Amino acid sequence: MSATSWAWLVLLFPMAGSIAISLSFRVVPARVAGAIGTAAIGLAFACSIGVLLSLLGDEPEARHHASSLWDYANVAGIDVKLGIYVDQLSTFMILVVTGVSTLIHLYSYGYMQSDEGYRRFFAYLNFFVFSMLLLVLAGNFVLLIVGWAFVGFASYALISYWYRRTTATAAGMKAFVINVVGDIGLVLAAFLIVRELGVFDYEAVFAAAPETFQRGEWTITAICLLLLVGAFAKSAQVPFHTWLPDAMEGPTPVSALIHAATMVTAGVYLIARTNILFYLAPTAADIAAFTGLATLLIAGTIALAQTDLKRVIAYSTMSQIGYMIMGVSIGAYSAGLFHLMTHAFFKALLFMAAGSIIAAMANRQDIDRMSGFWKAMRFTSVMLLIGGLALAAFPGTSGFFSKDSILAYAEARGGMYTWMAVGGYFGALLTVLYTFRLVFRVLPGRPCAEAQELIDSGHVFHAEPENPATGEVEDTDVGFPGAEHHIAEQSRPMALAMAVLGFGALFAGLLQVPGVDNVIFGFLEPAFHDSPLDAIHPTVAHEWEGLGIGALITFTGIALSYLLWVRRPELPGLLRERFRPLYLLFLDKWYFDEAIDFLIVRPALAIGRFADRTFERLVVDGLVNGTAGTVRGASGFVRFAQSGFVRSYALFLIAGFAGLALYFLLSAS
Amino acid sequence: MSIEWYIVLSSLLFAVGAMGILIRRSPIVILLCLELMLNAGNLALVAFSRMVGNQDGQVFAVIVMVVAACEVVIGLGLIVAIYRRKLPLDVDELRTLRG
Amino acid sequence: MEEILFFAAALGALGGAIGVVLMRNPLFGVLALVVHLFSLAILFLLLTAAFIAAAQVVVYAGAVMVLYVFVVAYVGDEHEPAWEPIPGQRFLAPLLGAALFVELSIAVLGSSLLALDTDGPDVAPGFGDPAEIGKLLLERFLLAFEASSILLLLAAVGAVVLAARRRDLDGGDVGTPSERFAPKASEEGAPAAPPTGGPS
């Protein structure tokens, strides 16, 4: 079977799974729905491997195929086909997406067991995977936008999954609105592309772009800036990032899948895919790189101050994606994608471990109340530690090799990009600090009450169900989390999924050790051969130099964290007091939410209020009711003629006839 | 007599009939005035037929007579029905069909 | 001779018309109309429309007016009130009538019909005879002939329906509407004959 046939199958299975789960709503037991969902994605993963194998059968330079099913829109000179494009980049993405998704489905099979809406969860999750695969496999900009929008919807549906929680629905709406802003940017970019180049297909666009545009021309810069709006909104980069922390309202598997491993990487994919366009618009590429750098640093500082377990990991995601965006913007395409892959592994793992801990805490997420889980939940703690080590780029872990490959490239490119590398290393220090703040708070020490309960009785701590953000009491019916909480130690599927990811987080980096092997880069690079930036390679010596600096930073960071949060726990409090304004800035997330509220939300609400009270009431109602009133008045006036007197009707008749005759006589004379 | 005398007479009778409709209030008299107008029309028809020299106008006048007869029948039937229901036979009183 | 006859008939017609319009009692109005119809018959004869004249007398004055007489006898007399509810009607009506007359006359007399001031062409002796009219009715104007017979049928059916006694659904006889709506003053009164007299 050809690569594209396998690719169509990859698209088919999740969609079929979603439809099957939806249609079999009351027919099959809930567990079966979960199994269908997991199997569907598993089959998709198998087919992705099929794509890879058949792609490997081609020559490295010929590994790109397009295939289309039928004409999607063929009107007014625009020809859009329902087509996919299979090359190294899309194959890489579908492998990562389906692989991680299978494991997360497996995890959800156990984690969401006591939730009343179990089936709905899997239907939405399958639909999400389908949309993400569509986004990545799309062969033209229109289908990309379709996949982009579907993914936004799936994210909204899953964030608001516990729909009876007002905080969850508000967060879902916030995510959706910001995503739509990004969609607008993407759609406008597509408009400009078709206006300038006349085509939508990737192959045609990327072939025509260097012929049509001068490097640095304003049209191509505009296109790329609009693409960036879309990418930043989807990947939660500053200033479109405010939805991601709130998106943690969704269940933990959702956070793991959508907001760590897959959806938020769509922006990275977009920039990598359109690398030729970005090469032609260096201003836009630099803006993207700087935004990535800024996000990296800002998110890192915010993560240092947060006390909600999932939010710390969310800001960490934002920060790591900043690395990836920075990477693909400056030309380190393969490096950025490599980091995407390793990040998917260890971030999903971190979320899964966090989910297990939150379950043990009866759905509470405050790290100030957690301690001593090392003794209570050994497996989960080990997984959390592995994830943390990979995130902190501990030597030998996957994160170590991937993060530093980006920074090595930045240095090799020289000029101002060296400063970006410096910023990146500083961000790495921040990463280690906030990661091990987490680890040293939650794992060691005297077990908290919930952990103690686990140690003593082996049962998960039971508490009154409440909203972790507001403390509101809830029930456990559909629309709220279920009554029981499942931890990895007691649920085989969860443990299995986490173990596989742990393996990947630890050892996936060994696929790309500088100077030793070149599996990932060797596979990916031919896809980017058209871009001159790809020709820049840091030397092996430089790479090892970077790795050395990275290792140094990691060790320093771990030592510092140990000091602050284990040895001298009073120090963080003192630092907070000393640098209070800075602490408040970090805690309040750099006031982005407040700024957006002031600049955008309030004027929008004011416009809405004006439209409702003034415009609607006076103009629209006035027009409509005024018209009706005028008609009524006029007809009241005319009603006098309907007196009911036959003789007066006869009078009018004869008078009219006489008048008419007079007119004709006069005009004839 | 030349034809124009007949025509003028016909229009005079027509105008008298029209005036009668406008003035009288009894339905019977109004019907009678309608007869006047119809007959004036008949007179004009026959006069023109004489002027033209063929009998088409006369045939037309026969048909008009038939129509007038039918209309009278129905009209008088209505008047009888109104009378039977003890309603006043006065077109100004019978005015519930109004806006 | 012809002129005298014409003026006499014209005066008769006009007098009859004005009588219809002005007479208070409807019976006198009917009689005035009969005079008018007879005068018109004479005028038709002057126009060599013999059949039409005969039909006018037989059908119009003979049948239609008899019908009127019956109804007027049934309905009786009523007095029209003097007060005019419609403003301006009494004033405008003669005005409009005059205007109508003047306009129609001007329209016809001022038209370019050349033969208006003649007596008409010489016609064959059988002009206006029943045979001629009958031939035209059955040959050239057959459709109109048939249509008017259908119209007659409709009128006959309509008259029957309008004046029929209403029977209730069980088949019993509910009597005439006058009987049904009669005030229940007398118990022993047999509601056989509808009450005569003016409308209440």
Descriptive overview:
The complex is a heterotrimer of chains A (about 675), B (about 100) and C (about 200). Chain A folds into 2 domains: about 5-585, no CATH class; about 595-669. Chain A is about 70% helix and about 5% strand. Chain A has helices at about 5-25, 30-55, 90-110, 120-135, 140-160, 165-195, 200-210, 220-235, 245, 250-260, 265-275, 275-280, 280-305, 310-330, 335-360, 375, 380-390, 400-415, 415-440, 450-455, 490-505, 520-525, 540-565, 570-580, 580-585, 590-640, 645-669, and strands at about 65-75, 80-85. Chain A has a two-stranded antiparallel sheet with strand order 1-2. In chain A, α1 packs antiparallel against α2, α3 runs antiparallel to α4 (about 120-135) and α17 packs antiparallel against α19. Chain B is mostly helical and about 100 residues long. Chain B has one domain (about 5-85): Helix Hairpins, CATH 1.10.287. Chain B has 3 helices and no strands. In chain B, α1 packs antiparallel against α2 and α2 packs antiparallel against α3 (about 55-85). The longest helix of chain B is centred in the C-terminal third of the chain and has 29 residues, at about 55-85. Chain B starts with a helix and ends in a 15-residue tail after the last helix. Among the domains of chain C are: about 1-75, Up-down Bundle (Four Helix Bundle (Hemerythrin (Met), subunit A)), CATH 1.20.120.1200; about 130-170. In chain C, about 65% of the residues lie in helices and about 0% in strands. The longest helix of chain C is centred in the N-terminal third of the chain and has 26 residues, at about 50-75. The termini of chain C are far apart. Chains in contact: A-B, A-C, B-C. Chains B and C meet through α1, α2 and α3 of B and α1, α2, α3, α4 and α5 of C.
Task: Briefly say what this structure is.
The complex is a heterotrimer of chains A (669), B (99) and C (200). Chain B has 99 residues and is mostly helical.
Largest interface: B-C, 73 and 92 residues
Number of helices of chain C: 7
Which shape of chain A, going by the Cα principal axes? globular
Helix content of chain A: over 70%
Radius of gyration of CA atoms of chain C, rounded to a whole number: 24 Å
Give the strand line-up of the largest sheet of chain A.
Answer: 1-2
CATH class of the domain at 1-77 in chain C: Mainly Alpha
Globular, elongated, flat, extended or rod-shaped: what is the shape of chain C? extended
